Amino acid sequence: MTDLPPPSAIELQSTAPLAGERVTFTGVLASMTHAQAADLVREHGGEAVEHVSRQLTLLVIGEEGWPLEDDGQPSRKLCEVLEWQEKGFSVRIAQESDFLRMVGLAEHSSEIRRLHTPSMLSQILNVPVHVIRGWERAGLIRAVRRLHRLPYFDFKEVAGARRLSELLQAGVPREEIERSLRSIPGFEAGVHRPFEQLELLVRDRRVVIRDKRGLREANGQRLLDFDGDAAVPLPSDVQEADSHPVTLSFLAARQQALELERRDWFVDGCRLVDADDLESAIEAFRMALMMEPQNPEVHFHLGDALYRCGRSRAALERFHAAVELDHDYFEAWTHIGSIHRELDEPDAAIDAFAVALDIHDDAPDVHFQLAETMAELGQLSSAIVHWEAYLAHEQRGPWADLARQRLLRQADAADSTTQRT
Predict the structure, then answer these.
(1) Which terminus of the chain has fewer Cβ atoms in its 10 Å neighbourhood, N or C?
(2) Global pTM exceeds 0.90
(3) Residue 107: which CATH number?
């Protein structure tokens, strides 16, 4: 009689979701590295392989950006698997979030679809915060929600925009990228956002936005669109002709002219920031403040431009002006704390970070900076609380690695103290 395996072996075999699977990965994973994913495959009964072969059973597509090579083509692994499928081989293709659910990590799957602030995205994607803000102003990415003026973005949309921008800057034709996007399994026919982003990125390497009236530049300049390919600026009187009433009272006309003048200076300042002409942007924001000195948004943008020019004290004054006008201006308080920390004024930095967290506690980057500042002052028990708070929100990126190192070091120090006593 054949010996039956022990019950524990039967249980192990039945609970291994990837038993018998040969798995490989393509594209950048949003939740972990390829090596960590391979470990997960082995832990759940499967075999992780580097290359595509006839024995492969599952290809997992990473969800950070798009699985496109530097030449704009779909990844080589994806092309090979699609070819094997056409020949009748039973190789499955799954998105990263589906793979995570297979191995019981549904919480990591939802993490991919979490919303992130500009600062958080900057850490994860290695894109400067001012670039992310510029993308939003240009319409390349859209804030899903705002809380105390702080925008939150969908991670996948921003990661996808970054990848498309890299490909276009490398000289890959737009049509090639579109063909590649359409060939990706799971890319729904009704998904138009990546193509809208391409249109924004591709026109003469400047951002041109299509709306219901045609084309306009990011600064509001209306353009003529011939056959969807060439765009010619329209005179300002033609651009605004359809948006002004024929007659206006003198006071109403004056107020509207002032509003347009103020808005033009502010928009011009944002455009100059995006073009890295910071000194001109500073002057534009100052002109905007002459028209409306009580606008906290203009003070904030002026402070940001001053800071990027290395004028930290002047920037600090502008951020203070912003919070004087709007006490709940979260990002301004965060900048105040960061500048005080850079100027070696840790007590003032801690105060500012504490105000920011009173306004919005769900802010991992502020928790991290507060923890680092407290640690510099020797307030280690308080710092631990905020490092842990950061990791509760964010597990990826250099700050997450540093927070784990800090906590491990403190745990080791506590163990050493216990052993000595």
Answers:
(1) N
(2) no
(3) 3.40.50.10190
